[in-house]
Amino acid sequence: MPKFAANLSMLFTEVDFLDRFEAAAKAGFTGVEYLFPYDYPAADIKARLDEHGLPQVLFNLPAGDWGAGERGIACHPNRVAEFREGVDRAIEYAKVLGNTQVNCLAGIQPEGVSDAEARRSLVENLRYAAGKLEAAGILLVAEPINTRDIPGFFLNRTEQALALFDEVGSDNLKLQYDIYHMQIMEGDLAPTIEKHLARIAHVQLADNPGRHEPGTGEINYPFLFAHLDRLGYAGWIGCEYKPKAGTQEGLGWLDNVR
Fold this sequence. Notes:
The protein is an alpha/beta fold. It has helices at 20-27, 42-52, 80-97, 115-135, 158-168, 179-185, 189-195, 221-231, 252-257; strands at residues 3-7, 31-33, 56-60, 101-104, 139-142, 173-178, 200-205, 236-239. It has a single domain, classed as Divalent-metal-dependent TIM barrel enzymes (TIM Barrel, Alpha-Beta Barrel). An 8-stranded parallel beta barrel has the order 1-2-3-4-5-6-7-8, surrounded by 5 helices.
Protein backbone atom coordinates (compact mmCIF):
# COMPACT_ATOMS: atom_id res chain seq x y z
CA MET A 1 0.00 0.00 0.00
CA PRO A 2 1.37 3.47 -0.82
CA LYS A 3 2.46 5.79 1.98
CA PHE A 4 0.58 9.09 1.87
CA ALA A 5 1.97 12.37 3.18
CA ALA A 6 -0.25 15.40 3.69
CA ASN A 7 1.00 18.55 2.03
CA LEU A 8 0.38 21.09 4.77
CA SER A 9 0.71 24.03 2.42
CA MET A 10 -2.52 22.96 0.71
CA LEU A 11 -4.40 20.79 3.23
CA PHE A 12 -5.89 21.83 6.58
CA THR A 13 -5.32 25.50 5.75
CA GLU A 14 -8.30 26.45 7.90
CA VAL A 15 -6.01 26.13 10.96
CA ASP A 16 -2.63 27.69 11.77
CA PHE A 17 0.36 25.97 10.22
CA LEU A 18 1.69 24.39 13.41
CA ASP A 19 -1.77 22.96 14.17
CA ARG A 20 -1.94 21.22 10.79
CA PHE A 21 0.36 18.43 12.01
CA GLU A 22 -2.26 17.28 14.50
CA ALA A 23 -4.99 17.57 11.87
CA ALA A 24 -2.99 15.46 9.41
CA ALA A 25 -2.38 12.73 11.96
CA LYS A 26 -6.03 12.62 12.99
CA ALA A 27 -7.06 12.36 9.32
CA GLY A 28 -4.93 9.25 8.87
CA PHE A 29 -1.90 10.63 7.03
CA THR A 30 1.34 8.96 8.06
CA GLY A 31 3.77 11.68 6.99
CA VAL A 32 3.86 15.37 6.11
CA GLU A 33 5.40 17.65 3.53
CA TYR A 34 4.98 21.34 2.71
CA LEU A 35 6.56 24.09 0.65
CA PHE A 36 8.89 25.68 3.21
CA PRO A 37 9.67 25.48 6.94
CA TYR A 38 11.69 28.68 7.16
CA ASP A 39 9.10 30.97 8.75
CA TYR A 40 9.15 28.86 11.93
CA PRO A 41 11.92 27.73 14.28
CA ALA A 42 12.98 24.21 13.35
CA ALA A 43 12.60 23.12 16.97
CA ASP A 44 8.92 24.15 17.00
CA ILE A 45 8.20 22.07 13.91
CA LYS A 46 10.17 19.14 15.28
CA ALA A 47 8.11 19.23 18.47
CA ARG A 48 4.88 18.90 16.45
CA LEU A 49 6.31 16.05 14.38
CA ASP A 50 7.31 14.16 17.51
CA GLU A 51 4.06 14.87 19.32
CA HIS A 52 2.00 13.35 16.52
CA GLY A 53 4.40 10.62 15.37
CA LEU A 54 4.83 12.03 11.88
CA PRO A 55 7.95 11.77 9.73
CA GLN A 56 9.00 14.89 7.86
CA VAL A 57 9.00 13.68 4.26
CA LEU A 58 9.90 16.68 2.10
CA PHE A 59 10.25 20.43 1.82
CA ASN A 60 11.76 22.76 -0.77
CA LEU A 61 14.99 24.67 -0.91
CA PRO A 62 14.42 28.41 -0.49
CA ALA A 63 12.85 29.60 -3.74
CA GLY A 64 13.22 33.37 -3.85
CA ASP A 65 10.38 35.79 -3.09
CA TRP A 66 7.36 33.47 -3.18
CA GLY A 67 4.90 36.21 -2.32
CA ALA A 68 6.10 38.22 -5.31
CA GLY A 69 5.54 35.28 -7.65
CA GLU A 70 9.00 33.74 -7.77
CA ARG A 71 8.95 29.96 -8.00
CA GLY A 72 12.60 29.05 -7.55
CA ILE A 73 15.92 30.63 -8.50
CA ALA A 74 18.00 27.65 -9.59
CA CYS A 75 17.85 28.67 -13.28
CA HIS A 76 18.74 32.30 -12.52
CA PRO A 77 22.39 32.94 -13.48
CA ASN A 78 22.69 36.09 -11.37
CA ARG A 79 21.53 34.51 -8.08
CA VAL A 80 24.01 31.72 -7.51
CA ALA A 81 25.21 33.04 -4.15
CA GLU A 82 21.63 33.29 -2.89
CA PHE A 83 20.94 29.75 -4.09
CA ARG A 84 23.97 28.39 -2.24
CA GLU A 85 23.00 30.16 0.95
CA GLY A 86 19.60 28.52 0.62
CA VAL A 87 21.17 25.08 0.39
CA ASP A 88 22.95 25.67 3.68
CA ARG A 89 19.75 26.88 5.30
CA ALA A 90 17.82 23.83 4.09
CA ILE A 91 20.47 21.51 5.50
CA GLU A 92 20.20 23.19 8.90
CA TYR A 93 16.45 22.61 8.97
CA ALA A 94 16.60 19.10 7.56
CA LYS A 95 19.03 17.96 10.23
CA VAL A 96 16.73 19.13 13.01
CA LEU A 97 13.57 17.77 11.38
CA GLY A 98 15.02 14.40 10.37
CA ASN A 99 14.17 15.18 6.76
CA THR A 100 16.12 13.03 4.30
CA GLN A 101 15.09 14.60 0.99
CA VAL A 102 14.77 18.18 -0.24
CA ASN A 103 13.21 19.45 -3.47
CA CYS A 104 14.75 22.07 -5.75
CA LEU A 105 12.37 24.27 -7.71
CA ALA A 106 14.05 25.24 -10.97
CA GLY A 107 12.19 28.52 -11.28
CA ILE A 108 10.71 30.64 -14.02
CA GLN A 109 13.16 31.41 -16.81
CA PRO A 110 14.18 35.06 -16.35
CA GLU A 111 13.47 37.54 -19.09
CA GLY A 112 16.54 38.08 -21.24
CA VAL A 113 18.17 34.79 -20.19
CA SER A 114 18.59 32.27 -23.00
CA ASP A 115 17.61 28.62 -22.75
CA ALA A 116 21.31 27.69 -22.74
CA GLU A 117 22.12 30.13 -19.94
CA ALA A 118 19.19 28.98 -17.82
CA ARG A 119 20.11 25.33 -18.36
CA ARG A 120 23.74 25.94 -17.48
CA SER A 121 22.77 27.72 -14.28
CA LEU A 122 20.35 24.97 -13.30
CA VAL A 123 22.89 22.22 -13.98
CA GLU A 124 25.59 23.96 -11.97
CA ASN A 125 23.27 24.71 -9.07
CA LEU A 126 21.91 21.17 -8.97
CA ARG A 127 25.44 19.78 -9.04
CA TYR A 128 26.42 22.01 -6.13
CA ALA A 129 23.28 21.21 -4.11
CA ALA A 130 23.52 17.47 -4.77
CA GLY A 131 27.07 17.39 -3.44
CA LYS A 132 26.38 19.50 -0.35
CA LEU A 133 23.25 17.54 0.49
CA GLU A 134 24.94 14.19 -0.06
CA ALA A 135 27.62 15.14 2.47
CA ALA A 136 24.80 15.83 4.93
CA GLY A 137 23.00 12.54 4.19
CA ILE A 138 20.11 14.22 2.36
CA LEU A 139 18.78 13.36 -1.10
CA LEU A 140 18.12 16.11 -3.63
CA VAL A 141 15.05 15.83 -5.84
CA ALA A 142 13.75 18.16 -8.54
CA GLU A 143 10.37 18.24 -10.26
CA PRO A 144 9.02 19.26 -13.64
CA ILE A 145 6.02 21.60 -13.27
CA ASN A 146 3.36 22.41 -15.84
CA THR A 147 3.57 25.70 -17.68
CA ARG A 148 -0.17 26.34 -17.58
CA ASP A 149 -0.16 26.91 -13.82
CA ILE A 150 3.31 28.48 -13.81
CA PRO A 151 4.02 30.01 -17.23
CA GLY A 152 7.69 30.02 -18.08
CA PHE A 153 8.71 27.39 -15.53
CA PHE A 154 11.97 26.09 -16.90
CA LEU A 155 11.80 22.41 -15.95
CA ASN A 156 8.53 21.08 -17.33
CA ARG A 157 8.87 17.54 -18.78
CA THR A 158 10.16 14.20 -17.55
CA GLU A 159 12.65 13.50 -20.32
CA GLN A 160 13.95 17.07 -20.15
CA ALA A 161 14.58 16.68 -16.42
CA LEU A 162 16.32 13.33 -16.74
CA ALA A 163 18.57 14.53 -19.54
CA LEU A 164 19.53 17.46 -17.37
CA PHE A 165 20.16 15.14 -14.42
CA ASP A 166 22.50 13.09 -16.61
CA GLU A 167 24.47 16.25 -17.26
CA VAL A 168 24.63 16.97 -13.53
CA GLY A 169 26.13 13.51 -13.07
CA SER A 170 25.24 12.90 -9.42
CA ASP A 171 23.77 9.77 -7.87
CA ASN A 172 22.30 12.05 -5.22
CA LEU A 173 19.78 13.64 -7.58
CA LYS A 174 16.43 11.98 -8.29
CA LEU A 175 13.12 12.86 -9.88
CA GLN A 176 10.11 14.15 -8.01
CA TYR A 177 7.26 12.99 -10.23
CA ASP A 178 4.10 15.02 -9.81
CA ILE A 179 1.22 13.16 -11.45
CA TYR A 180 -0.92 16.28 -11.81
CA HIS A 181 1.76 18.35 -13.52
CA MET A 182 2.79 15.54 -15.84
CA GLN A 183 -0.79 14.71 -16.82
CA ILE A 184 -1.06 18.27 -18.10
CA MET A 185 2.33 18.36 -19.84
CA GLU A 186 2.66 14.88 -21.33
CA GLY A 187 0.14 12.30 -20.10
CA ASP A 188 1.14 8.63 -20.51
CA LEU A 189 1.50 8.43 -16.74
CA ALA A 190 1.75 4.70 -16.05
CA PRO A 191 4.33 3.86 -18.76
CA THR A 192 6.44 6.87 -17.82
CA ILE A 193 6.47 5.91 -14.15
CA GLU A 194 7.37 2.33 -15.03
CA LYS A 195 10.13 3.34 -17.42
CA HIS A 196 11.80 5.68 -14.96
CA LEU A 197 10.89 4.13 -11.61
CA ALA A 198 14.53 3.69 -10.56
CA ARG A 199 15.04 7.44 -10.87
CA ILE A 200 11.83 8.49 -9.08
CA ALA A 201 12.33 9.16 -5.37
CA HIS A 202 9.07 10.98 -4.59
CA VAL A 203 5.59 11.14 -6.12
CA GLN A 204 2.95 13.83 -5.68
CA LEU A 205 -0.71 13.82 -6.65
CA ALA A 206 -3.74 15.91 -7.47
CA ASP A 207 -6.50 15.28 -9.96
CA ASN A 208 -7.00 17.15 -13.22
CA PRO A 209 -8.75 19.46 -14.01
CA GLY A 210 -8.89 21.66 -10.93
CA ARG A 211 -5.99 20.22 -8.92
CA HIS A 212 -8.45 18.74 -6.44
CA GLU A 213 -8.41 15.43 -4.57
CA PRO A 214 -8.31 12.05 -6.36
CA GLY A 215 -11.67 11.09 -7.78
CA THR A 216 -12.70 14.57 -8.83
CA GLY A 217 -11.21 14.51 -12.32
CA GLU A 218 -9.93 12.44 -15.20
CA ILE A 219 -6.99 10.60 -13.64
CA ASN A 220 -7.61 6.94 -12.74
CA TYR A 221 -5.99 6.97 -9.33
CA PRO A 222 -7.06 3.46 -8.20
CA PHE A 223 -5.26 2.12 -11.26
CA LEU A 224 -2.16 4.24 -10.61
CA PHE A 225 -1.97 3.25 -6.94
CA ALA A 226 -2.19 -0.42 -7.87
CA HIS A 227 0.38 0.18 -10.62
CA LEU A 228 2.83 1.71 -8.15
CA ASP A 229 2.30 -1.26 -5.85
CA ARG A 230 2.96 -3.73 -8.65
CA LEU A 231 6.14 -1.89 -9.58
CA GLY A 232 7.34 -2.00 -5.99
CA TYR A 233 7.47 1.76 -5.46
CA ALA A 234 8.57 2.20 -1.85
CA GLY A 235 8.62 5.99 -1.56
CA TRP A 236 6.06 8.48 -0.37
CA ILE A 237 3.13 9.99 -2.24
CA GLY A 238 2.65 13.62 -1.31
CA CYS A 239 -0.95 14.80 -1.41
CA GLU A 240 -0.54 18.26 -2.89
CA TYR A 241 -4.07 19.13 -3.92
CA LYS A 242 -6.63 21.87 -3.32
CA PRO A 243 -9.61 20.34 -1.51
CA LYS A 244 -12.72 20.87 -3.59
CA ALA A 245 -15.08 21.36 -0.66
CA GLY A 246 -12.86 21.27 2.45
CA THR A 247 -10.10 18.89 3.47
CA GLN A 248 -12.16 16.66 5.77
CA GLU A 249 -15.08 16.51 3.33
CA GLY A 250 -12.78 15.28 0.57
CA LEU A 251 -10.91 12.51 2.39
CA GLY A 252 -13.09 9.64 1.20
CA TRP A 253 -10.49 8.75 -1.42
CA LEU A 254 -7.91 8.14 1.33
CA ASP A 255 -10.26 5.90 3.31
CA ASN A 256 -10.71 3.78 0.20
CA VAL A 257 -7.01 3.01 -0.22
CA ARG A 258 -5.97 2.41 3.39
